[in-house]
Amino acid sequence: MVRNFFIGGDMAVNRVGFGAMRLAANGFRGPARDPETGRAVLRRAVGLGINLIDTAAFYCSSDKTVRANMLIREALHPYPSDLLIATKVGHVFNPVLSHRTASGVLTDKDLAELA
Q1: If you placed Cys at 45, which of 17, 20, 50, 104 could pair as Cys (CB 3.0 to 4.6 Å)?
Q2: What pLDDT digit, counting tens, does each position of 52-68 carry?
C-alpha cells in the first residue's frame, strides 16, 4: 500500500483508511451486529495495511450492546505503533433518537473506551 499522507509531519498514513461506523450495526443506528465478525474485520483490515481507523463513541447498536470503540480495543489492543485512531464527539442521543450537541467530557469517555 502506498503511503501518501503524513500526520504531524512524521506519522505516515496509508491512502485508504477504515470507517468503523457500521461495525456495531447495519447503518448509523440499528440492531446489533455480531461482535466477533466486527473484531475479525478489524484484524483483517489492519493485516491488509490499514493504519487509520475512524470511529466515534456514538457508533453503536441501538441497544448499545455492541460499540465500535469496544470492538476496536478488543480486536487490536495493544495497538500497533503505526496505527492511528481518529475519533470525534458531538452527539448525544435521547430515547427518541434525536440528538443534541455535546462536548468536553465526551472526549475523555472516548479515550477511556479505546485505552
Answers
A1: 50
A2: 999 988 899 999 999 99
User: Would you state the cell numbers that stand for residue 34, as one nine-digit string?
Assistant: 455480531
Q: Distance between CA atoms of 35 and 39, rounded to whole angstroms?
A: 6
Q: Name beta bridge partners: 85.
A: 53
C-alpha cell at 46: 489492519
The reported pTM is 0.83
The CATH code of domain 15-114 reads: 3.20.20.100
Tell me which H or E stretch contains 8.
none
Within 13 Å and on the Cβ side, how many CA atoms surround 108? 2
14 forms beta bridges with 3
Tell me the longest C-alpha to C-alpha distance in the chain: 44
Give the contacts of 17 (CB within 8 A, at least 6 positions apart): 50, 51, 52, 53, 54
